[in-house]
Amino acid sequence: MAMTADRIHQTHPFLDGRPKRMLIDGKWVEAASGKTFDSINPATGEVLAQVAEGDAEDIRRAVAAARRAFDGSWSKWKPYERQQVLLKLADLVEQHIDDLTMLDTLDMGAPITRMRGGRRRAIGMLRYYAGMATSIHGETIENSLPGEIFSYTLKEPVGVVGAIIPWNGPLTAAIWKVGPALATGCTIVLKPAEEAPLTALRFAELALEAGVPEGVINVVPGYGETAGAALAAHMDVDKVAFTGSHLTGQKIIQASAGNLKRVSLELGGKSPDIVFADADMESTVSGAAMAVFSNSGQICSAGTRLFVERKVYEEFVGRVAEFGKKLKVGNGVDPEVQIGPLVSEQQLDRVTGYLDIGKREGARAMSGGERLKGAEYDRGYFVPPTVFADVRDDMKIAQEEIFGPVISAIPFTDLDEVIGRANATLFGLGSGVWTRDVSKAHRLAKGIRAGSVWVNCYQAMDPAVPFGGYKMSGYGRESGLQQLEEYLNVKAVWIKTA
Ligand code: ADP
Fold first, then answer.
1. How many degrees, rounded to 5, is the angle at CA 48 between CA 43 and CA 49?
2. Is residue 407 classed as helix, strand or coil in its secondary structure?
3. Which residues contact 102 (CB under 8 A, 6 or more apart)?
4. From the CB of residue 169, how many other CB atoms can be counted at a distance below 10 Å?
5. pLDDT tens, 191-230?
6. 45, 259, 388, 447: least buried by Cβ within 10 Å?
């Protein structure tokens, strides 16, 4: 049962008991409707804060502010000046990183050790985008027309960006959208997820402190079907950058049709993680386990279809299950905890629903398999690391994204066979290969249809390396030089000189 905000234990400077407002045009304002919603700590069920609940009217105001800012003085800012503001923001994020990561932990449950582990990446992303701000350039291109006509390209910011983000890594998700927008000179309306809106709001406070002009960043918390849908459909939004489920991604594309706005989508997956008998077993057990159990499986590229070469299948899967049993599950504020709760009751229902389906389909739960019960767990949404053995390719738990700490372990015998089976999915986001044989590694790296292939590691991420999907895992890339292109238009200029 949720507690009221005034009863919250004061665990964080941002959680001062006051309702959290939204940021429009550089001002912190209530929703036009006056409505708020509760942001809940999934480890305890406590209300952390009441948050302004934006809907279509707030989106309208925020987009208008973003348009004014885009057309106004922001467009005159030099790359160096945008770089300076990004560097200042990076410094402020670094200065406040403990509070920001703790806010992530409180709002969505991930263990504080995980969030702190991501600090280098979060700050590094901002500094990478700062570098990019002064690296944008067009090209001169020789043409074959008669006479003297000079042709070149200009790279221009795409305009007003609507960014819709999920809850599974609030700080990095916000930086992943705001960073490229600032680097390229776009303006942005950011809609954080209703499950975890707080870090984006705190991050926006720091952006203002860093000197981001009013209207350049607007943050409108609210529900997907109202605020999110209004942003995706808005006729004056030039691009939507979306991260979330493939079903919502399809709705975003439909909503974008009105003005044919540009869309980039980072969606879900059912990523194959392939273990050969020749792999180093010790590191592969922990690597394959954490490819799924990290963040309680709430990672779009989690390696949830664990293909294991048949001759080591029983032993390997048993060891992964034992590894999972030893992980400490609990409230993520405890630095000893390795696995936090799921983000919400809805997510708990969804994941436990899949646990039931798996058992009904005939899979064998080698560890976990049920919601955790007991005083420490009852008020939160805890599911232990679960390993299902005897999974067949046609089972639901081998095909659908569960978004929980659930491994579906499947045996295989030969390399070509496993490539075909790994690719027999609607998705193509991540993938893993564990082997000491470099030729197998290369063949799989080429054969797997996915945006990332991790060999003898999983989930490595870096601001400079592109990340994104094949097939129904979406299109467009985040991080790397490719991401900047998503926020830029290319203009061809022709000048007749003679
Ligand atoms: P998840 O299942 O991971 O919560 P969603 O795709 O439902 O994934 O949510 C990701 C983000 O998309 C959230 O910010 C959510 O509010 C938003 N969202 C959900 N439905 C819609 C929609 N119809 N239009 C636009 N945004 C939406």
1. 155
2. strand
3. 11, 12, 112, 115, 333
4. 26
5. 999 999 999 999 999 999 999 999 999 999 999 999 999 9
6. 259
Question: Any idea which residue has 């009441």 for tokens?
Answer: 50
Average pLDDT in the chain: 96
The number of beta carbons lying within 10 Å of the beta carbon of residue 246 is: 19
Whether 310 has a pLDDT exceeding 90, the answer reads yes
Q: Whose CA is nearest to atom 14 of ligand 1?
A: 193
- CB burial class (10 A; 0-12, 13-18, 19+) of residue 281? middle
Phi-psi region of 470 (alpha: psi -120 to 50; beta: other; left: phi over 0): beta
**Cβ(162)–Cβ(189) under 8 Å?**
yes
**Residue 476 contacts residue 451 (beta carbons within 8 Å):** no
- Cα dihedral 360, 361, 362, 367 sign: negative
What is the per-residue pLDDT for 341? Answer: 98
Residue 390 in this model has a pLDDT that exceeds 70: yes
Residue 6, pLDDT above cutoff 50: no
pLDDT given for residue 4 in this prediction: 43
Cα 170 to averaged position of ligand 1 atoms, centre (Å): 14
pLDDT band at 3 (very low <50, low <70, confident <90, very high): very low
* Interatomic CA distance for residues 419 and 468, integer angstroms: 20
Which residue of 107, 164, 348 sits with most ligand 1 atoms within 8 Å of its CB, as the best mutation to test the pocket? Answer: 164
For a mutational test of ligand 1's pocket, the pick from 22, 247, 248, i.e. the residue with the most ligand atoms closer than 8 A to its C-beta, is 248
Which whole number is the average pLDDT over 468-482?
97
**Closest ligand 1 atom, CA of 251?**
23
